[in-house]
Amino acid sequence: MSNNTTSETKSSNNNTASVTKSYPMNGGDGTYSYMKNSSFQREASIIAKGMIEEVIAKKLDIEKITSASNTFRIADLGCSVGPNTFISMQCVIEAVEQKYIFKGLKSQLPEFQVFFNDIGTNDFNTLFTSLPARRNYFANGVPGSFHGRLFPDSSLHIVHASFALHWLSKVPEEVLDKDSPAWNKGRIYYASASDEVANAYASQFAKDMDNFLNVRAKEIVIGGMMVLVMTATPDGVHRSKTGGGILYDTLGSSLMDMAKVGLVNEAQVDSFNLPVYAASPKEMTELVEKNGNFSIERMQPTDPLLRIDDAIDMQMCTMHIRAAVEEIIRKHFGSEIIDELFDRFYQKAAVYSQMDSSYKKKNLLFLALKRK
Amino acid sequence: MSNNTTSETKSSNNNTASVTKSYPMNGGDGTYSYMKNSSFQREASIIAKGMIEEVIAKKLDIEKITSASNTFRIADLGCSVGPNTFISMQCVIEAVEQKYIFKGLKSQLPEFQVFFNDIGTNDFNTLFTSLPARRNYFANGVPGSFHGRLFPDSSLHIVHASFALHWLSKVPEEVLDKDSPAWNKGRIYYASASDEVANAYASQFAKDMDNFLNVRAKEIVIGGMMVLVMTATPDGVHRSKTGGGILYDTLGSSLMDMAKVGLVNEAQVDSFNLPVYAASPKEMTELVEKNGNFSIERMQPTDPLLRIDDAIDMQMCTMHIRAAVEEIIRKHFGSEIIDELFDRFYQKAAVYSQMDSSYKKKNLLFLALKRK
């Protein structure tokens, strides 16, 4: 291995530390599984479908990127267990095939190799046993954090990541430090916290995104594309007025309510923070431009992320939040508080959802980047 | 997708049928897990290590196979859950690195990408969470039967398979047919059965091996190599006198003993056959030569496969057999017979192992092939 490669691989291995701090979506196919509780994300995938088709049709230069090989490699980062990832990958493949056909290159259609990536503790067993029986691609699972290197140099043509990049590599250190002005006492998220806390989160996200763009720049061929679907804070909207902000704040205040009646320890709440950040389109533009490896081909705020129109939807929403964050909460607080916590969360969130619905707008950002 | 590719991918998908008939090694890391009960296979990996190093040093033409890319791709077929597969992959990588260094190409050392393959119901979760933290390769899991296509055209440089190719794609149909002279009544294996039964097994193996060599020939670059470690029947030794033959026959007669006292149904035993075959070096030579896609670079019968020197080793041997075939037996006979069956197997096998040890010789075949 060249020195360069060795240090990269090392850096990938050093990321093991953050991988072990990462938590998978709920595995299996049970009541609280991500598989059964990811219809919001699926809805977003369907919204994204049209945009994916369009950017591939208009922006992808297939002659440029596939000259060296007849294999077209696509990765889905933070894929969880399906079925959404299968829908997204099929969508990408069909859009690429259409492009070949449109260009009169039907006879040169490539073979597709799809890399399903998530952290090593993700339930890959469920992913693999639920792969579509009829598929026109070679399937691979890739364990590891997308904050580190996952693939060889210049080996990918399209990278897709949906509802993944809001996961930080770690909780910003300052928010756990009692002596810092950014100490996040009594909260588990930055949305309704002080600007110091929010800045600590933003700064961690900026570091993570810069690193993410650097490692992907190595892995993606020149002209290759990234299609990102992200939870976002709309430009001009305060962080506490977004869907994610309200929901995670409500989860935090449910924990604090439990602390007040002695069901959890308040110090435990103080020392727990969700490593999640929802950037704004403006922030993402600045970060991508500052990084310099990718051009922005499309940046499209969209909605709805969550259709919280009535109490029934809030029940579904509770199940979704639970599928996503149960594991990280369980590791910090223990299993015994989970049911009580999400009962309380549901009660509080259902009341709120009757009062205001402005927070539902433009919580989703569709972003298409091209490797320069 | 070109017609050619589509039909290949289809054929890969059609193999889903045989995949669903395949059974994984015992997963997890419990008492009866493959992870804890694969030291025989590990011992064989250690024996194979020297031979792998030698064939890579002497036979692999690295300039020829890696000109188009700086990624060196290695697959381990039928990898199970580790740790043996990690040892084998490290061995292959080190041998390739040594070759580069020896050739004065240290500055051109490639990045390594390793593909861990096994059927989709294999415990990939355990495999992924036990990956070596310090590794100098990008790790991938590939779910699917090695009897079908798994990788894009010309995408692999070295394929390794240890204790995998003895698994047939299916039980030969004739041995389940009451009207056939090859009906295997009262047995679960061909070793001590009639020649008709043995021929049916041999014929299925020949078909599977020809297909295996054809699909791998598509996936491996010209000049790329396959390193196979197989359970084998030594040339000139009757099939009933090999380690595997004796052990599986003993398992079958343990089942028949249970049938006699009503613990299982005799018809159930008649309808169960292990889809496993141990070819001889002579057979393998003929099959590879007839197929024509690969040259034989080395064919080395070796031993010991099983070091069954005393009762303690037979206990270990029982655990090993159990880790390998428990799942397929469970699916046919149900969970409740498992403990009793392996208790009986252990008693019978322990007595036999005191009587004779000639069957321990040359039960292992090391084979290195090069893609023409």
UniProtKB/TrEMBL annotation, chains A, B:
Keyword Transferase in annotation: yes
Stretches with biased composition (Low complexity): 1-18
Stretches the record annotates as Disordered: 1-23
Gene3D superfamilies: Methyltransferase, alpha-helical capping domain, Vaccinia Virus protein VP39
Biological process terms in GO annotation: methylation
Entry GO MF terms: metal ion binding; methyltransferase activity
Pfam assignment, any one: Methyltransf_7
InterPro entries according to UniProt: MeTrfase_7, MeTrfase_capping, SAM-dependent_MTases_sf
Keyword set includes Methyltransferase: yes
UniProt KW keywords: Magnesium, Metal-binding, Methyltransferase, Transferase
Family (UniProt): Belongs to the methyltransferase superfamily. Type-7 methyltransferase family.
Name of this chain's protein: S-adenosylmethionine-dependent methyltransferase
Organism field: Nyssa sinensis
